[in-house]
Amino acid sequence: MSNNIDNSKLIDGKKIAAEIKSEIAAEIKLLEGEGKRSPHLAAILVGEDGASKTYVASKEKASKEVGFTSSVYRYPENISEQELLDAVNFLNNDPEIDGFIIQLPLPKHISESKIIEAVSPSKDVDGFNPVNVGKMILGFSTFLPATPFGIQMLLERSNVETAGKHCVVLGRSNIVGTPIANMLSRNASNANCTVTLCHSKTENLAEITRQADIIIVAIGKPFFLKADMVKEGATVIDVGIHRIEDKNSEKGYRIVGDVDFDNVAPKCSHITPVPGGVGPMTIVSLLSNTLKAYHENNK
Question: Which of 12, 21, 98, 103 is catalytic?
Answer without folding.
Answer: 103
